[in-house]
What we know:
Elements: E1 15-17, H1 22-35, E2 49-58, E3 62-70, E4 75-81, E5 84-88, H2 92-106
Antiparallel strand pairs: 1-2, 2-3, 3-4, 4-5
Amino acid sequence: MGFFKKKSEKKKPRVTNEIENKQLKENIADAAxxxxxxxxxxQDLVNTIVKFGYLYDVESRGTEALFxxxxxxxxxxxxxxxxxxxxxxxxxEAFNDTVARMKEAHG
Length: 107
């Protein structure tokens, strides 16, 4: 009888920490820099810093990341979700909180 069947447990996707993957970080950073607007987001990119909060490869979903680009004019926050690069309207506090939660969840 099928009345009391247990719901099938969903298998959690495998998550791989890619924070040490230099090539992946460079590719993502290059894509983010291409989105920035000279004059508005930066004057000169010479001393620009890209800081990743987290970078994961999630089985069946692709890359997930949260990072910031610090230029001579501003700090711009970005996310990668389902292999799409998104520019975020974020604060430093929201960035740090999100990074902490993700690291707690995925190590």
